[in-house]
Write a structure and sequence with these properties.
It is a single chain. The chain is an alpha/beta fold. The chain has two domains: 190 residues, 3-Layer(aba) Sandwich (Rossmann fold), CATH 3.40.50.620; 102 residues, 2-Layer Sandwich (GMP Synthetase, Chain A, domain 3), CATH 3.30.300. The chain is 42% helix and 19% strand. It contains eleven helices and nine strands. α3 links the parallel β2 and β3. The radius of gyration is 20 Å and the shape is globular. The termini are far apart. Bound molecules: xanthosine-5'-monophosphate. Xanthosine-5'-monophosphate binds next to loops.
Length: 318
């Protein structure tokens, strides 16, 4: 694709020109935008780029390990993996209000990132995977999502950070970012991942968060996602995940009575994430997902499927 090749060549040249021999840091989340930005910048300036990956302890199962394999080993990106799980979990202990959880997670992220970025001596630029829709959204002060939920994808870093911004994807739409990613050699499944919210599993564990609930949710969510891929359904839905309710119910396993948590499987189809419908997933598929979660995940004995549209429901449960 000559247009993309052109775009990549032009942008690589611009990055080289702008950065010169300076150092750049980038917050790598494992999501599409920051990953494509990282690989693109690395193509331009190699090891002058240091990526910081913060494991909040609220990520999908094995996420940190997968990011290190995919981008560290395969693309040779220089990634500093910061395991901040305990910090996040201890700050969240006993907190059940969704907006308060978001604030705590957002603030903690900024603290950890700030600390780590200052350990990288002489870094002049801060790179971000900001894409065109982020630029627009951050300009509309009264955008519905800004009112309903305090997203922290854009403008989440403190003003006083003395870095110059480097945002090579600022003019691109999502589908263009994906194409650039594939052109750069990032595997298809990584470039077509569903979006994942900044507060992560922190807002998919309803009520107070703890390490055991994180483990339970990671296992259940991983099964659902595996099955979507296995059945060719992953790219037919826009966002899919599992939610863990703080509700226990009675069940029976063999001769024993169980009293365990309820998981909700959620899958939404949407174009812009402002309105969405629930995915009409096949019954047989849902049956497989439910059986696997109940049989394989210790701590869950009941699975429900969310059949709510947005509005009035939101895609996430918190
Ligand atoms: P809702 O739940 O409002 O979600 O229908 C719409 C889209 O936004 C994502 N989302 C978030 N992303 N920080 C984020 O970075 C947040 O606090 C947040 N809340 C919701 C959600 O996953 C969906 O894609």
């Amino acid at each position: 694709n000559w247009k993309l090749t052109n775009y990549i060549e032009k942008t690589v040249a611009e990055i080289k020109e702008k950065v010169g021999s300076q150092k750049v840091i980038l917050g790598l989340s494992g999501g599409v935008d920051s990953s494509v930005a990282a690989v693109l910048i690395h193509k331009a300036i190699g090891d002058q780029l240091t990526c910081i990956f913060v494991d909040t302890g609220l990520l999908r199962k094995d996420e940190a390990q997968k990011v290190m394999e995919n981008y560290g080993e395969h693309f040779h990106l220089n990634i500093k993996l910061i395991d901040a799980s305990e910090r996040f979990l201890s700050k969240l202990a006993g907190i059940d209000d969704p907006e308060q959880k978001r604030k705590i997670i957002g603030n903690e992220f900024v603290h950890v990132f700030d600390e780590e970025s200052h350990k990288i001596e002489g870094a002049k630029f801060l790179a971000q995977g900001t894409i065109y829709p982020d630029v627009i959204e951050s300009q509309s002060v009264n955008g519905p999502s800004a009112v309903i939920k305090s997203h922290h994808n854009v403008g989440g870093l403190p003003e006083e950070m003395e870095f110059e911004l480097l945002e090579p994807l600022r003019e691109l739409f999502k589908d263009e970012v994906r194409k650039v990613g594939e052109e750069l050699g990032i595997p298809h499944h990584l470039v077509y991942r569903h979006p994942f919210p900044g507060p992560g599993l922190g807002i998919r564990i309803l009520g107070a968060v703890d390490a055991e609930k994180v483990r339970i949710l990671q296992e259940a969510d991983d099964i659902f996602i595996q099955e979507l891929y296995k059945n060719g359904l992953y790219e037919k839905v826009s966002q899919a995940f599992v939610v863990l309710l703080p509700v226990k119910s009675v069940g029976v396993m063999g001769d024993e009575r169980t009293y365990e948590y309820t998981a909700v499987v959620r899958s939404a189809n949407t174009i812009d994430f402002m309105t969405a419908t629930w995915s009409r997933l096949p019954y047989e598929f849902l049956d497989t997902v439910s059986s696997r979660i109940i049989n394989e995940v210790r701590g869950i004995n009941r699975v429900a499927y969310d059949i709510s549209s947005k509005p009035p429901a939101t895609i996430e449960w918190e």
